[in-house]
Design goal:
Blueprint: E1 2-10, H1 18-24, H2 30-42, E2 45-49, H3 50-59, H4 66-71, E3 76-79, E4 90-93, H5 97-107, E5 111-115, H6 119-126, E6 132-138, E7 157-164, E8 170-176
Parallel strand pairs: 1-5, 1-6, 2-3, 2-5, 3-4
Antiparallel strand pairs: 6-8, 7-8
Length: about 180
C-alpha cells in the first residue's frame, strides 16, 4: 500500500490549537472541497491515530454530503495501545503501531490515506513509511499550538507538486528524497 498523509498547517507550522482550528475553517471553498473529495476517492482505506479517530468517529457518521458519503464507508485502521474495540468500519492496530503499518503496507494493495498529526505521524516519518506528505498550507499565523514535526530525525523530502485550492490555500506535496 502507498501511504499518504494529508494535513492542514498554518504558515507558522502549527497543526493544532484553539486559534488554528477556528482560523482554518474560513479558507474552505468549492475547490478545497473538490480536492478533498478527489483525495478520498483515491483512497482504499484510512489510517488514523487514536485522537483523530475519537474526533472523526464522533462527528463523521452524523454528517451528510459528498465528503461524508466518501469517508464513512471507507475501511479504517486506528493505531492505539489502549483502544480495544472500534466502530465506524474500523480495525484497531494492536501492538507497535509502526510495525503494524509496515505490515499493512506490505500485505495490501492501493492507497492508505492518513489524517491527523502528532507522535504517530512523526514515528511513521522516522520509520520511512510515508510515501507522500500533503501539506494544506493556510494563509494565517496561529501563534501557538502543536508544530507538525517537532523533534524528528533529519529528513529530506522532494517537492512533487503544488496545488492552489483557492482562498490563498496551497497544497504542497512532498515525497521522500532518495
Amino acid at each position: 500500500m502507498r501511504l499518504i498523509e494529508s494535513t492542514y498547517i498554518s504558515l507558522d507550522g502549527m497543526v493544532t490549537g484553539d486559534a488554528f482550528w477556528g482560523a482554518q475553517q474560513g479558507f474552505q471553498g468549492d475547490a478545497h472541497n473538490q480536492h478533498a473529495a478527489t483525495l478520498l476517492k483515491s483512497a482504499d482505506a484510512l489510517l488514523l491515530g487514536r485522537q483523530t479517530y475519537d474526533v472523526f468517529s464522533a462527528s463523521w457518521p452524523e454528517r451528510s454530503g459528498e465528503l461524508a458519503d466518501l469517508i464513512n464507508p471507507l475501511p479504517k485502521y486506528v493505531a492505539s495501545s489502549t483502544l480495544t474495540e472500534a466502530t465506524w468500519n474500523t480495525e484497531v492496530l494492536h501492538g507497535d503501531a509502526v510495525e503494524a503499518v509496515g505490515e499493512l503496507k506490505k500485505s495490501r494493495e492501493g492507497t492508505l490515506l492518513k489524517y491527523g498529526t502528532g507522535t504517530f505521524s512523526r514515528a511513521l516519518v522516522d520509520a520511512g513509511l510515508l510515501d507522500e506528505l500533503r501539506l494544506w498550507v493556510h494563509p494565517f499565523v496561529a501563534g501557538s499550538g502543536e508544530r507538525l514535526l517537532p523533534e524528528i530525525s533529519p529528513t529530506q523530502l522532494a517537492l512533487a507538486g503544488v496545488t492552489d485550492v483557492g482562498n490563498g490555500v496551497v497544497i504542497l506535496t512532498y515525497t521522500p528524497k532518495h
